[in-house]
What we know:
single chain; alpha+beta; two-stranded parallel sheet
Amino acid sequence: VKRLLDGRRRRVFAYGGESRFHPVHVSNAAELVRLAARRPGSRVLNAADPEAPTVAEIASAIDDVLGRETETVLIDGASPEGHIGVTPW
């Protein structure tokens, strides 16, 4: 989002933009907290939304919400140099 707001119109994604980022909506996280509070204990709990979009899908959704058009540059495989193409999320 910051990149779009400061005027950058090009994104570079490694692995063809197919890397997945598994977000969790606040309502799902809150439900997990509510359910866990009913059964206190020492454990690890994970929360995630039902779908795990690709980084390219997330970028497209951000473009749509902000009403911006961007160019997406896809790199096959790992980044050829440093952090170029590594997911911004």
